[in-house]
Specification:
Rossmann fold; Elongation Factor Tu (Ef-tu), domain 3; six-stranded antiparallel beta barrel
Length: 309
């Protein structure tokens, strides 16, 4: 999958194509339905597929700290998109200049001149351009003028409820990982490089891999049974703490994974952590001794989950 960073990096070889536009936060089942439809059309036309993403996401640009938390960071989103026959991702910087772009100019600059779109798939409630002035009808009219078709994807439902990023986010915040997996079609995953931490876990008798998270805080906290990928043997079972470490200092959001029955150096390795079951929420303990006892219980519960008692 080719990542095109910015409109200025578009070249003649990127035309023509079939495309879709959106945040694709979570790349959940509704997103996958869009990607599947796009892949079928691309195969019929003999063209590559392009997913147009924005960074930051528009709500993050306009709402700043009040924007809902991301389900996935960009790295994890791109990894998920690789699974679904996406040939290229166009990553557009969403800044004040881009936000002020007129809807007609967006069509001309991005879809027509930039990508040479021949088929476009968007949600039928998709809005774009300055003050959200562009809509599905405007895209259809432009398509008639410029020679591309526009298709709208209808609501995708599970249990008579719409599958959406909001619904996935709510399930994550509630710790309902079974529901999250149902909506995503796969376990929830966070990936990152293993960094040196404060070695507290080692001091307490439970060494952990400190997985880098970047600036985006996921909508999930607690202690979990996890599968870890990226090691010589995979998946490797583990117990993970995701959150603010309130007993230690409560100032740094972190992902720390204790790999069961593991010995070796994992610093610098890039790991993928699949969250399988939430064992408990975050708690603040009166002392490190109390925390150590609880970690022992968490590890025992994790071993039981994996049948390693």
């Amino acid at each position: 999958m080719e990542l095109i960073r910015g409109l200025h990096n578009l070249r003649a070889r990127h035309q023509p194509c079939v495309a879709t536009i959106g945040n694709f936060d979570g790349v959940h089942l509704a997103h996958q339905a869009v990607l599947g439809h796009l892949a079928e059309k691309a195969a019929a036309l003999g063209l590559p597929t392009v997913v147009i993403l924005f960074e930051p996401q528009p709500r993050e640009f306009f709402q700043r700290d009040k924007a809902p938390p991301r389900i996935h960071r960009l790295r994890d989103k791109l990894q998920a998109l690789r699974r679904y026959s996406v040939d290229r991702v166009l990553l557009v910087r969403f800044d004040a200049k881009f936000a002020s772009l007129q809807a007609a100019d967006f069509i001309e600059r991005v879809l027509v001149n930039g990508l040479g779109v021949r088929y476009l798939v968007v949600g039928d409630d998709f809005r774009f351009g300055q003050n959200r002035q562009g809509d599905f009808a405007m895209l259809q009219q432009a398509g008639a003028r410029h020679g591309f078709d526009v298709a709208g994807m209808h609501t995708f439902q599970i249990d008579s409820a719409r599958v959406s990023s909001t619904r996935v986010r709510e399930a994550l915040q509630g710790g309902d990982l079974a529901r999250v997996e149902q909506l995503l079609g796969r376990p929830y995953r966070i990936s990152g490089a293993v960094l040196h931490g404060d070695k507290l876990g080692r001091q307490l008798g439970f060494p952990t891999a400190n997985v880098a998270l970047g600036k985006h805080i996921p909508p999930l906290t607690g202690v979990f049974a996890v599968d870890v990928f990226g090691l010589a043997r995979e998946p490797w079972p583990g117990a993970a703490n995701l959150g603010w470490r309130p007993t230690v200092d409560g100032r740094r959001f972190s992902l720390e994974v204790h790999l069961l029955d593991f010995s070796g150096d994992v610093y610098g390795q890039h790991l993928q952590v699949d969250f399988l079951k939430r064992l408990r929420g975050e708690e603040k303990f009166a002392s490190l001794d109390e925390l150590t006892v609880q970690i022992g219980r968490d590890v025992t519960a994790t071993r039981a989950f994996f049948g390693l008692e």
